[in-house]
Amino acid sequence: MNILRGINDLAERTAERLAGLIVGDDYEKVITLQFCVDLVRRERRNNPKVTYFTLSVRSNEFPANECDNFVVRLSLKDAKRNALMSDYVFHADEVDADITELLDGRESVTVKI
């Protein structure tokens, strides 16, 4: 089972790296919860179906630079928690204390707006 998990993790990291090369992920020094909330609010003004968002933070085992220690993913979802668009992906040197507190030891959390 651990072998399958390792293969899955490797595939996810490879897919994220390829997506970053194709789409161009954003690199930030610090990602804050306020930044994420502001982004969700902006998207909700453009699309009133946005009801939930999922915030995920993962340590990056193979950082490409000094602003690549964490991969932060923000997913916008409708009332049935279906994805509405492509996720926002940011790479950061650190995340703020508000994100750490919200996650409370978990890798991701879904929040109703």
What would a concise description of this structure say?
This protein has three helices and five strands, in the order αβαβββαβ. The protein has helices spanning 2-24, 33-46, 97-103, and strands spanning 26-31, 52-59, 70-77, 88-95, 108-112. The relative contact order is 0.22.
Structure report:
The protein is of the alpha+beta class. It is 39% helix and 31% strand. It is built from three helices and five strands; from the N terminus they run H-E-H-E-E-E-H-E. The protein has a five-stranded mixed sheet with strand order 1-4-3-2-5. 14% of the residues are buried.
Task: Output mean pLDDT.
Answer: 83
Rg to the nearest angstrom? 14 Å
- Tally of alpha and pi helices: 3
Low-confidence stretches: 18-24
Query: Widest sheet: strand order?
Result: 1-4-3-2-5
What's the overall geometry? globular
β-strand amount: 25-35%
Give the topology string: H per helix, E per strand: HEHEEEHE
Q: How helical, in percent, are the residues?
A: 25-40%
Kindly report the oligomeric state of this protein: single chain
CA(first)-CA(last) distance: 37 Å
- Find the count of extended strands (DSSP E, 2+ residues): 5
SSE-based structural type:
alpha+beta
Largest sheet: 5 strands, mixed
Key phrases:
alpha+beta, 113 residues, 39% helix, single chain, 3 helices, 5-stranded mixed sheet, globular
In terms of topology, how is this protein built?
Blueprint: H1 2-24, E1 26-31, H2 33-46, E2 52-59, E3 70-77, E4 88-95, H3 97-103, E5 108-112
Parallel strand pairs: 1-4
Antiparallel strand pairs: 2-3, 2-5, 3-4
